[in-house]
Design goal:
This protein has 503 residues and is α+β, with helices and mostly antiparallel strands. It has 9 helices and 26 strands. α2 crosses α6 and α3 packs antiparallel against α4.
Length: 503
């Protein structure tokens, strides 16, 4: 029995083993009346390059601070398409490019550098193959212990069938345990789809690296760094009746935790700086810090009630950035016209989150697909805001005619300038600057993963010519189109299966 979660779950079961013509309606928005604390933006492996005149893109393109306009609905069958936002995001940079790039592949020697970069080689490094069938006796026992807790709770709640299910799981795990190895083995060869363990800052951790080992088609890697020693037991012992403890970014809690004082003594800048050191140890480049927020640790009992909670540390999120403009990383799984019986768009891109407290990095997860060292930049001239909006007036209706939505009205409430992937005329991948229009709807505070809302509508408008970018066809070229699409393109669903699994 393996527990899957978007959170960091520390338990005796899990961690022990871890996108009408505008005739006005847009206007400038006044600046905020308060001054924010000055912060450093950390960029590793890329830099902001100056344009010919040095003026920021927002100034040169005449981008307003807010906008409320209607678009032509054309033959889309929509009753209304509108942009109503005070959230037009344009990065503080002065140049944009079309960027050719290669997909990321990883070699055994690079994995070796990762592992030996984060672990103390002199203290020994061990490994096992990924997969439940390779779990050690102790790892299986941790799962048995947790299943037994749930079995007893089900009996107390009068859920006999559920208790019987857990009993069956326990029996199967006990059978597997008899044939399981006692320990990890000392590392001899490095490769993908392995779990490595070793000492980091004196504590035992694991590093899982997943990738397609077919060199002719491999694309992208997943990484997870997590506690593998007594950390979870020590945390559980602090709170009576706790069965597991989870650590999540503050924005994902869905509860009022603003008054909690952060026990971590580091500043955000210091935390980001330390996180960059960790990325350097992994040999990762081309990533920029995009957010930093406190983390909340919650202890819960067997009925999933929170019995205690504290704020301690930071979660720093990194993504790809090219000359000061972020590369898109958005979850489009709730966009109805991109999730149909013909297939769906899987979330893909480059993102890494590092969790850190006064003792150092204690958890990190990453999904990386772009070889940032392969970038070939070509300077691009963008349409100004009015030109883009005039072209978008036609393009958006065309998009919804080709990809109908179940909605009768679309009201975009966010728009930002990002790099998005697109297939060029030769069939190669490139990043192009695009205006990403999204309609984001409020999320359920009971669902931590949806606490910040979800994207229900999205359109990419190419900032060079104002045409829509075909998200579905791009996904097919990337190998991130699931379901009904069949071609010679490799499906990478198997790479993502472990992205939120904690070993």
């Amino acid at each position: 029995m393996r527990k899957r979660s978007e959170t960091i779950v520390v338990s005796i079961a899990v961690l022990g083993t871890l996108i009408c013509v505008c005739l006005g309606g847009c206007g400038d928005k006044k600046g905020d009346a308060f001054a924010e604390e000055e912060r450093t933006t950390y960029i590793y492996g890329d830099s902001i390059q100056e344009g010919d005149d040095g003026a920021l893109l927002s100034v040169r393109l005449g981008v307003p601070g807010a906008c409320n306009v209607e678009f032509d609905t054309g033959k889309s069958k929509l009753r209304d398409i509108r942009l109503s936002t005070e959230n037009i995001v344009v990065p503080d940079t002065d140049a944009a490019y079309v960027v050719d790039y290669d997909n990321l592949k990883i070699k055994a020697e690079e994995i070796q550098k990762m592992v030996e970069g984060v672990f103390d080689k002199s203290a020994g490094i061990y490994c096992r193959n990924d997969g439940d069938e390779y779990m050690t006796k102790d790892e299986i026992q941790s799962d048995i212990d947790m299943a037994e807790i749930y079995r007893k709770q089900a009996l107390e709640d009068g859920q006999a069938e559920t208790a019987e299910m857990y009993a069956g799981d326990i029996k199967n795990m006990q059978a597997r345990q008899k044939e399981a190895p006692d320990t990890y083995t000392p590392v001899s060869d490095y490769g993908p789809n392995m779990i490595y363990t070793g000492k980091a800052d004196g504590e035992k951790y694991s590093l899982w690296v997943s990738a397609n080992d077919d060199d002719s088609t491999s694309r992208g890697i997943s990484i997870m760094f997590s506690p593998a020693g007594d950390q979870e037991k020590n945390e559980l012992s602090r709170v009576d009746d706790s069965v597991y403890v989870e650590t999540v970014p503050e924005s994902s809690v869905g509860a009022d935790v603003a008054d909690l004082k952060n026990k971590c003594t580091m500043t955000e800048n210091a935390a980001e700086s330390e996180a960059m050191v960790f990325l350097s140890k992994l040999g990762l480049s081309g990533l920029a810090s995009q957010s930093c927020e406190p983390v909340i640790r919650r202890w819960q009992n067997s009925t999933f009630d929170t019995v205690d909670m504290e704020k301690n540390g930071y979660a720093i999120e990194f993504g790809c950035q090219i000359g000061g403009i972020d590369v898109i990383y958005k979850d489009l799984t709730a966009v109805d016209n991109l999730n149909t019986e013909k297939g769906y768009v899987m979330q893909e891109g480059d993102k890494m989150t590092v969790f850190i407290d006064d003792d150092g990095v204690f958890y990190a997860r990453a999904r990386l697909c772009t070889d940032t060292n392969s970038y070939v930049r070509k300077k691009a001239d963008l349409l100004n805001w009015d030109e883009m909006m005039s072209a978008a007036d036609e393009s958006i209706a065309e998009y919804y005619r080709r990809y109908p939505t179940a909605y009768s009205e679309v009201e975009f409430n966010n728009v930002e300038l990002l790099y998005v992937p697109e297939v060029d005329s030769a069939g190669d991948m490139q990043y192009v600057p695009a205006w990403v229009f999204t309609q984001t709807e409020g999320g359920d505070v009971l669902d931590a993963g949806m606490a910040n809302g979800h994207i229900s509508q999205v359109v990419y408008i190419n900032a060079l010519d104002g045409k829509y970018i075909d998200i579905a066809e791009t996904a097919k070229a990337l190998g991130t189109w699931g379901g009904g699409y069949e071609s010679g393109t490799v499906s990478y669903t198997h790479l993502r299966a472990h992205e939120t699994t904690l070993h």
